[in-house]
Amino acid sequence: MTGPRVQSYMSETFQTEQTLHHVEEFAPLLVAIRKIAEGALRQLQIDYRDIVLSGCWANINPPGAKHSIHSHPNNFFSGVYYVQSDAKANIIRFHDPRAQAEVIMPPRHQQNPYNTNLIELETKPGRLVLFPAWLKHDVPTNLSARERISVSFDLMFPNFTETMSMPLWRGGENKKIR
What we know:
With 178 residues, the protein is mainly β. The chain has helices spanning 27-43, 160-163, and strands at residues 6-8, 14-16, 52-61, 67-70, 77-84, 91-95, 118-122, 128-132, 137-139, 148-156. The chain starts with 5 loop residues before the first strand and ends in a 15-residue tail after the last helix.
């Protein structure tokens, strides 16, 4: 298979097509991604039969580029593996999903993960971050002199509607509505 074509995503940010999970050279990374996702599913105690990569692509952020706030619809997990991220280009930010969370913000003695609406996670080459696909996130402007390079991916349950999306409640027989 020939390498994926690179396409422009934003004015200065580049992404490959979302087909890297079909490129043989990425097989060791895909094995690691699957192992981490299966571990997360066990920890969450989710009953599942399988989880598959629905997309995998490379991101190249040259100096001055950023990746705006977004989420990954129609997937269960998303993640990113960092290939190259220097100081001043080594943060991914996760945003509080509650629309009105900033309405009441009492003063804090010190900011920590339990009292903030924004979590900043430091990245470094070789780090893999897995998170819920619905969680809004962004990557700030690359203030370093080198490109920030990462591989992003999405995971979903195959045949979700046939195997997992049934209602989580049960109706009773002969129940009257009052």
